[in-house]
């Protein structure tokens, strides 16, 4: 697959087959993605791959975080909702939690966050080339310190950047068209001050 094809044809996937992806394929993607640009060679990305029984624990932690954030009412409906979310999350074959150390220097923190985002896009494109779908998620539980601690991540030192839902796509959504570049791109090739 040409790079241009991967970039233009990739879609965020919301509906996955239940088939698990081999660790060797996943490791290949996450290893090649490390060629992302990274200032000072900090390579700030870390990954916890949650799958099989591990994803069941993850789903419970997500529900507990939603509960803490007052997402559920106190009635029967809440139990049904929780059950729906639990089943939905458990059907997704892989949840890759991506996190980074928080640099105390804000400028370096931003450089690291940018590098992790470049890394994630590499993961998305390399996955797409292998027929693997990804949904890049930044749900509110990623900012819940108790959620991080339950995963064994010290929330004062680390930022949870994203959860990547991964699996073979059952359905590929239609493209969401982009704003024409002429609306965004300004050429200045004469002195302008
Ligand atoms: C930083 C970031 C966070 C995102 N978080 C979510 C999310 O929480 N839930 C979701 O459904 N999609 C999320 N997305 C995916 C976007 O919604 C998606 O890229 C957009 O709709 C365009 O669709 P496409 O990727 O198929 O072109 C996120 C994307 C980025 C870059």
Automatic annotation (TrEMBL):
It comes from the Bacteria. Signal peptide: none annotated. InterPro entries: NAD(P)H_nitroreductase (IPR052530), Nitroreductase (IPR029479), Nitroreductase-like (IPR000415), YdjA-like (IPR026021). PANTHER family: NAD(P)H NITROREDUCTASE YDJA-RELATED (PTHR43821:SF1). This is Nitroreductase. Its cofactor is FMN. GO terms for molecular function: oxidoreductase activity. Belongs to the nitroreductase family. Keywords: Flavoprotein, FMN, NAD, NADP, Oxidoreductase.
């Amino acid at each position: 697959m040409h790079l241009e094809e991967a970039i233009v044809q990739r879609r965020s996937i919301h509906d996955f087959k239940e088939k698990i992806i081999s660790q060797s394929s996943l490791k290949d993607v996450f290893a090649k993605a490390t060629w992302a640009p990274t200032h000072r060679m900090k390579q700030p990305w870390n990954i916890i791959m949650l799958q099989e029984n591990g994803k069941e624990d993850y789903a419970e932690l997500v529900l507990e975080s939603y509960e803490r954030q007052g997402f559920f009412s106190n009635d029967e409906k809440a139990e049904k909702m929780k059950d729906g979310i639990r089943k939905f999350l458990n059907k997704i074959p892989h949840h890759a939690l991506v996190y980074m150390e928080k640099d105390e220097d804000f400028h370096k923190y931003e450089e690291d966050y940018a590098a992790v985002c470049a890394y994630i896009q590499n993961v998305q494109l390399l996955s797409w080339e292998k027929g693997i779908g990804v949904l890049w998620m930044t749900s509110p539980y990623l900012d819940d310190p108790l959620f991080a601690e339950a995963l064994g991540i010290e929330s004062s030192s680390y930022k949870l950047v994203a959860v990547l839902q991964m699996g073979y796509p059952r359905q590929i959504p239609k493209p969401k068209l982009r704003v024409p570049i002429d609306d965004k791109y300004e050429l200045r090739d004469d002195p302008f001050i």
